[in-house]
Specification:
Elements (H helix, E strand, L loop, with lengths): L7 E2 L4 E6 L2 E6 L1 H7 L2 E5 L6 E2 L4 E7 L3 E5 L4 E6 L2 H4 L3 H4 L8 E5 L11 H8 L1
Antiparallel strand pairs: 1-2, 2-3, 3-9, 4-6, 5-8, 6-7, 8-9
Length: about 120
């Protein structure tokens, strides 16, 4: 399982890549492998401002449906429209083309409270 060092992670297996005051959010390589084949990603929170830990959408695999949690306070700016036709991108490239939402960060200080790659790797063992 990979956990790129340039990302931050949550205990719920989301990652965040910060680019200034915006960020991309998705699920980790570990999460996608545990879920299995991803068949659908649903995000109905575009334009909403959510608090860290709130549900921003769901990911559906062949065997289960899991909620997706926003890692920091922010507004959901964009859903990765490519996932509508190709949800398998989450399995194939979870840290790249498989990103799920782009957000506007409300409080960048919250980033520091998230897990580093090393801390996340220790969490998943």
């Amino acid at each position: 399982m990979s956990a790129p060092a340039n990302l931050k992670y949550t205990k719920e297996h989301e990652w965040i890549r910060v680019e200034g005051q915006t960020a991309y959010v998705g699920i980790t390589d570990y999460a996608q492998s545990e879920l299995g084949e991803i068949v659908f990603v649903e995000v109905e929170t575009i334009g909403e401002t959510l608090s860290a830990g709130e549900v921003f959408g769901t990911v559906e695999a062949v065997k289960t449906v899991s909620e997706l949690f926003i890692p920091v306070d922010g507004e959901i700016l964009e859903f990765n429209a490519e996932l509508e036709d190709k949800p398998e991108l989450v399995n194939e490239d979870p840290y790249g083309k498989g990103w799920m939402v782009k957000i506007s960060i409300a409080d960048s200080a919250q980033i520091d409270a998230l897990l580093s790659a090393d801390e996340y790797e220790k969490l998943i063992g």
